[in-house]
Each structure stands twice: as structure tokens, then as C-alpha cells.
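Duplicate of #3305? Posting structure anyway:
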């Protein structure tokens, strides 16, 4: 499979504003932020999209993505007012990068439904 831009960020082949890392996840600021806080949290293993998640196999990893989101939300002081977590899956959702990522968005009032 061809490397995505996110696997290049994991391998430090291209730069990113990394805000958190552990053995299995990496988090960095979105290059085109849609809110005052806009961070992408990704697994280091390649899972192209939500439909390729297997609950039993990836349960621990998914837990770590959410742990990272909560930790970062606290650090960025958006945990009290609230924030949004988004996974875009496929064309209709506007997924651009086919390496699983969770968007952590906060720091402003959000609207619903999303566009
Ligand atoms: P999605 O539409 O859910 O696939 O989101 C992909 C996100 O990746 C978009 O919000 C882009 O702004 C962001 N993005 C693309 N390239 C980079 C990059 N090199 N560094 C940080 N964020 C990026």
C-alpha cells in the first residue's frame, strides 16, 4: 500500500506540529484548522478507515485514541466547555487521508447538523 501523508509524519519524513506520542498513537495539529483547537489523533499502525476496524483486534488501540483525546482536551483546556470528536469515513464524509484519524475539535461553539 502506498504511504499516506500521515505514515510519512509517523516516520518523520515530513514535519508536523506533534503534541502527543506514545508507542501506539501520534497526535499533531491539523494543517488547516477548523477550530481554535484542531488536532488529529492517529494510530501508528495503518488502518485506512473506520470500516476496517475490527472490534476485538483493535479494542486496545481505540481505547488509546480516546485516552489521548481526553488527555489533550484537558491540556488544551477544552474539556470543561466541550469538544467534538470526528472520524470521517469514505467519500460522502469527505475523508481525504486514508489513514484512520480522529479529529479533536474545540475552543468554539459548534453547530449541528454538520455540513
Ligand atoms: P479527513 O478529511 O477526515 O481525511 O481529514 C484529513 C485532515 O488532514 C484534514 O483536516 C487536513 O487539513 C489534514 N491534513 C492534511 N495534510 C496534513 C499535514 N501534512 N499535517 C497536518 N494535517 C494535515
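Output from current build:
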Amino acid at each position: 500500500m502506498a504511504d499516506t501523508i500521515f505514515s510519512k509524519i509517523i516516520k518523520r519524513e515530513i514535519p508536523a506540529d506533534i503534541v502527543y506520542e506514545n508507542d501506539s498513537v501520534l497526535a499533531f495539529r491539523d494543517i488547516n484548522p477548523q477550530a481554535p483547537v484542531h488536532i488529529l489523533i492517529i494510530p501508528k499502525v495503518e488502518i485506512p478507515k473506520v470500516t476496517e476496524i475490527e472490534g476485538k483486534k483493535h479494542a486496545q488501540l481505540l481505547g488509546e485514541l480516546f485516552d489521548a483525546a481526553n488527555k489533550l482536551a484537558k491540556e488544551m483546556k477544552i474539556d470543561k466547555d466541550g469538544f467534538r470528536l470526528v472520524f470521517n469515513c469514505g467519500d460522502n464524509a469527505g475523508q481525504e487521508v486514508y489513514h484512520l484519524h480522529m479529529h479533536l475539535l474545540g475552543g468554539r461553539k459548534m453547530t449541528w447538523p454538520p455540513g
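Confirmed duplicate; merging threads. The mean pLDDT is 97. The first strand starts at residue 18 and ends at 21.
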